[in-house]
Design brief:
Number of domains: 1
GO molecular function, one term: hydrolase activity
CATH class: Alpha Beta
Order of helices and strands: EEEHEHHEHEEHEH
Helix content: 25-40%
Shape: globular
CATH topology: Rossmann fold
Number of strands: 8
CATH architecture: 3-Layer(aba) Sandwich
Number of helices: 6
InterPro entries: AB_hydrolase_fold, Dienelactn_hydro, Dienelactone_hydrolase-like
Radius of gyration: 16 Å
Structural class: alpha/beta
Pfam family, one: DLH
Protein name: Carboxymethylenebutenolidase
CATH superfamily: Alpha/Beta hydrolase fold, catalytic domain
Amino acid sequence: MNTITIETGDGPMNAYLALPPSGHGPGIVLIQEIFGVNQVMRDLANAFAAKGYVVACPDLFWRIEPGIDITDKTEAEWARAFDLFKLFHVEHGVRDLRATLAALRAHSACSGKVGAVGYCLGGKLAYLMATRTDVDCVVGYYGVGLDELLGEAVHIHKPLMLHVAGRDQFVPPAAQAKIHEVLDKHHHVTIHDYPSNDHAFARVGGAHYDPEEAHIANGLTEHFFARHLS
C-alpha cells in the first residue's frame, strides 16, 4: 500500500496516496466514510488518480485506532463503524484535514491546487473544509449534520458542490429543507438532489447503490474538479 505520513501537530497520521499516471497533477483530499480507509476509499483514490489527480486519503480514526479498514457487509462491522463515529472528534478531524491539505500542496507531485471530496461522515467534513480552510474547491456526498452547521456558510469563499439524497435516512426532509433555504442563495454553492435515493447511493456494492444516479453524480464531480483545479 502506498502511504505517506502527515505530521498533524498531535502526532503522525498515515494517509493512502494515489498518484496519476503522469506523476504530477492537482491534488484531492479524499475524506473517508465511517468504515475507515477501506477498499472503497482506496478504489476511489485510485479512480481519481487515474483521471490525473494526486490523491491523499488520511486515516482520520488514527487517534481511536490506526488502520481501521472494515466494510458495510456485516452487522458486527456496522456496529463497529457506529462506535467509531461516536468516538470521533470532529474538531480533531478538521485539524487533520487541514494538515493533509498542507502536506498535499507541498508534495512534489502536486501542482499546488487542491480540492476535497467526502462521503457520509466525510461529506460533513468536506463542508467544514469549505468553511474552515482555504481548499480550492469541495464536493460533499450525502453529508450528515450539515443543517446544524449552516451558520458557517458565511465563510464559504470557494466553490462547493453537494450531492443530497432525497430519501437519506440520516438527513430527514426538514434538515434538507434548511440546507436548501440557506445554501441555495449562496453563489459559491451548487446542490444536486437525488429525490429517489437513500444515503450512500454512490457507494459501489452498498445496499443503496444506484449505478445510474452514481454515474450522474460522479460525472458532475469530475466536471467540477476539472473546472476548478485545472
